Amino acid sequence: MSSSDSINDPDPLSAAPPAAPDALLHAEPGVQTQQARLQSAILLLLGLGLFFGLPFVLSIGSVVFLPPVTAIVLTIVLAPAADRLVRLGLPNMLASFLALLLLIAVVVVALSLILQPAYDMVDQVPAMARRVSLRFAELRSNLAWMNDINRQIARLTGSTATREVVVASPSVIEQVAFATPSVLIEVLLTFLLTFFMIESRIRTKRRLLFDRHSFGASVRIARVIRAVQDRVASYILTVAQINLGVGTIVAAGSWAFGFSAPIMWGGLAFVLNFLPYVGPLVMVALLTLVGVGTASTVALGLLPALAFLGLHAVEANFVTPSILGARLTLNPVSILISISYFSWIWGTLGALLSVPILLTLTALVDHLGRPNLVGFLFGEPLFQPGLIAQDELRHPEDYAGHEGDMASDETGRPLHSRTSQGA
């Protein structure tokens, strides 16, 4: 072989390397997909660990975490009222104080209408308990044949009666005495945090909007803030108006059935109806207990509870969905999970905060991207595009600009043409 042949006929080994970069380029999308799925899997595991581990931290540190969370929810609800007072010409600090004072006045009036009659009714509890016991004794005598069957089954199985050991626990008065100082401190801290959060809402909003490196990020943050505030505040104010109507009807019905303190029953219905599904069940149990304990027969005692069940069925299936609409309607399963989750962490107050927290998380998820857990198992991305990503694809010009393009009014709301709809 001549030298010219060796030049014109290159070695196959020397010719192989140039094809390697093309192969790597073709393999790059697959590698990127694997990396994205690995990162999504790690994020999913961290989220699950946070979901199951967070309750223990929040429960142990409830004195630290509960007041700020409550203050954030109250700030979201009261911020529109403070903004309206600012637009009327009041100073921001005075508007924030008046909004918080209005909330405190509503709480004090509600508690006085509920607690004072409840204290007066405590004296009647022993008599009602005796009547309830008498009613159940009558029912037990009518079902004596079932007791005979149970005794026969116990004799055949050879089971014996067990001795029950009851451990003495502090009385209710002792528990209240021990808990009162801590509760007062938490309430005072919550109101102070709420006032300072409302008062600083304008500075905080401007800092979140204008301290960004890109104009598009400011637009996204503005729309998320507006969505969360509108959804939570609209839901709570609308449900409060519906519950006020329910409480009024319950108060009138309690007066018609001859219950003492009908205003107290209306206030209980108003407060408990903020807890979907769970609150009405508690109300039915209370009406059944008092009705059976005060009526002459069991059938008459069950009438108030049955009437409230009918009222709740109409309110929950027709009135509330037609007023709230699809935007503020929540999945019943997610509501029950949220109530059980936060009541496990913070008790009764956690149950009351569960729906506002769920609304806040739902608004964030809808705008930033909803998790796609089932699709992720079959190769799809972990998060679906949110409302912001979809809007950015439809209107890319609204997310292009610079920091000087965004001005704000006296409440910190951006004055950009489309941003003003979502700030």
From TrEMBL:
It is found in: Membrane. The keyword Acetylation does not apply. The chain crosses the membrane at residues 41-58, 64-82, 94-115, 176-198, 232-257, 263-290, 344-365. Residues 399-423 are annotated as: Disordered. Residues 399-413 have a biased composition (Basic and acidic residues). It is a multi-pass membrane protein. Keywords: Membrane, Transmembrane, Transmembrane helix. The keyword Plastid does not apply. InterPro entries: AI-2E-like. Belongs to the autoinducer-2 exporter (AI-2E) (TC 2.A.86) family. This is PurR-regulated permease PerM. The lineage of its organism: Bacteria, Pseudomonadati, Pseudomonadota, Alphaproteobacteria, Sphingomonadales.
